[in-house]
Amino acid sequence: DVKVTQSSRYLVKRTGEKVFLECVQDMDHENMFWYRQDPGLGLRLIYFSYDVKMKEKGDIPEGYSVSREKKERFSLILESASTNQTSMYLCASSFLGTVGYEQYFGPGTRLTVT
Amino acid sequence: GQQVMQIPQYQHVQEGEDFTTYCNSSTTLSNIQWYKQRPGGHPVFLIQLVKSGEVKKQKRLTFQFGEAKKNSSLHITATQTTDVGTYFCAGGAAGNKLTFGGGTRVLVKP
Questions:
Q1: A21, A61, B11, B88: least buried by Cβ within 10 Å?
Q2: What are the beta bridge partners of residue A109?
Q3: Nearest to A42 among B44, B48, B100 (CB)
Q4: What is the dihedral of CA B75, B78, B80, B83, to 10 degrees?
């Protein structure tokens, strides 16, 4: 069974704090993704990575950065958290291919910035 | 950039009835995927469609990919309480990136 784990289910941070969200997958997937989910907006892609040390901006990268030092681990960093970054953050992983493969999602981290 | 619109946003269904949710893309897609998210859960992959005009069935669920590869639909027959959740379509483009629709939240009245 594919397993995607995220470091926290719930997180409360103050405005201006640096926030790290970690994601680990155990299926040797090349692709890893970070999304945020807000009601009515679906899932919006923040960043993705198709290889170690490689990263691509998604649709809403502003205010975020990522790090992928090992194949199984993909970190999302909020350099200076703001209240509009309060959201559910979902990590996903998949194999890399010419046609897309299914994405496996972690349980999510609900982040509240006060 | 690519946009994927999904309608309706909410669907209240009487148990036993059928319903359809629709997905439309602003650009031609390489593939489309459908996911289901149960309340309090995370999205789980249901199916992928790749070919123009493709139709796939999973028990009471029927998925279609439009001829122009810009739209898709999910039809559920004889809705059950286990169908409760939010259904997302996601359009695929180059680089295995997906653009998700806003989702259709399904509520079932027993």
A1: A61
A2: A89
A3: B100
A4: -10
Amino acid at A106: G
CA–CA dist B62, B22 (Å, integer): 12
Given a cut of 90, is residue A1 above it in pLDDT? no
Where does the pLDDT of residue B102 fall: very low under 50, low under 70, confident under 90, or very high at 90 and above? very high
Interacting residues of A18 by C-beta distance below 8 A, sequence separation 6+: A77, A78, A79, A80, A81
d(CA B78, nearest CA chain A) in Å: 26
Give A7-22 pLDDT, tens digit per residue.
999 999 999 999 999 9
Alpha helices, H only, chain A: none
**Residue for token pair 């681990």:** A73
Task: Say what the alpha-carbon torsion angle B79, B81, B86, B89 is, to the nearest 10 degrees.
Answer: -30
Cis status, amide bond into A107, omega within 30 of 0: no
Question: pLDDT tens digits, residue range A83-111?
Answer: 999 999 999 999 887 777 899 999 999 99
* Cross-chain residue pair A105–B44, CB shorter than 8 Å: yes
Mean pLDDT of the A33-61 span? 93
Residues of A in contact with B102 (CB under 8 A): 40-42
A99: distance to nearest CA of chain B, Å?
7
Which residue in B1, B50, B95 is closest to A50 by CB distance?
B95
Residues of A in contact with B56 (CB under 8 A): none
